[in-house]
Design a protein that fits this description.
The protein is an all-beta fold. Helices cover 0% and strands 34% of the residues. The chain starts with a strand and ends with a strand.
Length: 90
């Protein structure tokens, strides 16, 4: 279980998008989105990611199925953009 925070705009599965080495791939990983981050690869994360926070100014663009076992928090000024066919399971 690792805490990831975005450092720049990019794809979820691009290690350059995140503060930590790699990118969020494991059950329980927590995520803070502070930039435009596109989730476009279905990841098999068991029970799902931990808490996902979309901070003010951050945009999570969901294009595929995403599993979250924690809380999805959208701060004032944060944006969740669901593309057609995308689903988020809690």
């Amino acid at each position: 279980m690792t805490a990831f925070t975005s450092t720049q705009d990019g794809d979820w599965d691009d290690a350059n998008t995140w503060t930590e080495v790699g990118y969020p791939t494991s059950a329980g990983d927590t995520v803070t989105v502070r930039h435009d981050v596109t989730y476009n690869t279905v990841l098999s994360v068991g029970d799902g990611f931990g808490d996902v926070t979309i901070a003010s100014g951050g945009v999570l663009i969901s294009e595929v199925k995403m599993d979250i076992d924690g809380v999805l928090l959208i701060d004032g000024g944060g944006t969740l953009h669901q593309k057609p066919g995308a689903k988020i399971y809690f």
